[in-house]
Amino acid sequence: MGKSVIKLKNISKKYELLGAKPTFVEFLMSRDRQKHWALRDIDLIFEKGEKVGIIGPNGAGKTTLLSIISEIVYPTSGELKVSGKIVSLIELEAGFHPDLTGIENIYLNGLIMGMNKLEISNRLEEIISFADIGKYIDYSMYSYSQGMKLRIGFSVAINANFDILVLDENISVGDEDFQQKSLKKIKSVFAEGKTVIIATHHLDFIKKTCHRVIWLEKGRIIKDGPTNIVIKEYEKANR
Amino acid sequence: MLLLKNYSKPRKYLEFLWAMIERDFKARYKRALFGFLWVIINPLLQMIIIGTIFSFFIKIPNYFLFLFSGLLPWSFFSLSFSKATSSYISERLLLKKAKFPKELIPTSIILANFLHLIISLGLFTIVLLLFGLLNPTNLLLLIPGLMWLVIFTLGVSFMTAVLQVRFRDVNFITQTLLVLWFYSTPILYSVSQIPERLNVIFRLNPLTSVFEIFHCALVNQCEINSQILIINLLITLLVVIIGLCTYKALNKYLVDWL
Question: In this predicted complex, what is the ipTM?
């Protein structure tokens, strides 16, 4: 048995469904607000170096689970314990300031990802060369295409010196060329001793890379176990 | 300390804060033609327009300079307050991206504005020096005045910034409030010109004493009423505590509502 790096104990997450523009006036007026349980009583332990796939239909709670593990979203109840640095490849192109240059944004993004300035400076070359957007790196970001922003976002995240990587759907981003490159990079992370948690519908990818799979449905764990067993049952149930 | 607690390394925290302030600065000047000048031009124009009109009704010596010594901190306050209030909404993607100390978003906006205020106050004191109006000992009062102003701004903005995420109409309330607030703060007039029966407004408005301190420090025309001062201090304390408590209670759920 390895050392556990993430521990979820009885985690539940409830969302209140609000109107398009939740206002104070509306809050005072309406009494019965719709509630929705995105996760219900989740108990999980992830060990160091484990590669875990999370599967399930849309709305099963996969993204919520990943957001809770990354501590972006707080659970309504339950306990979460994380040891080690997590980087999540969620919202890759988010958090950039359009008026700042690529390099300035790399620093800012790196800080948000939990690096300090020195670490970013040390990895700057690597980040820039991996993103590979040429002279644009010195220009303001409003002149960037969506793909270029994704490249920068991915490059910063993957170089963020993490212990645990959390992936949501996007195992590859950008154009054909960069997709290959990012996929290769992610596969190399799988080969390292780091913990990886991935939610995706690409069952083939999971079969090749993960040794444990968690099947979620309606916010509950249906099955948790070795990849081939869980996927076989999942495929049987969804046929 | 309350804010530092949820981040392990203070140095890293400060580094992050500074980077956010820098971001605000850089972003503001990169595409603005006159850059910093706009921070001065806005209150300057206000001073000229308001001064020209109100000098017919309000008799205060050196009225234009008196006005300016209030308009500078006011433009800091109103800009910070309104920008910080909507800051979580405009930075929603940042919050969804990773875990980081969320209080830095409104704090960095306010501190960036604060740096501007200090620079423009520096320029203003040079002007006052040329007019021979500056009293060096009074100038020291700027230190408690600035501290009070920034602490109060932080406290009140924390409250509205968090509430704005939950209730999107908070923004409209604060915009209206700002207009009323401007007229109930001694900026156009001095406290001594208002009949004492209206003192209740000044007691409830913590900015009264803050602005009187600015008037004392810069143009040496002020009347600090100790009773108002104490009540103002207590209200400031209350607002700051409520602000921090609201933040502490709700900051975990900000992302849910974005």
Answer: 0.82
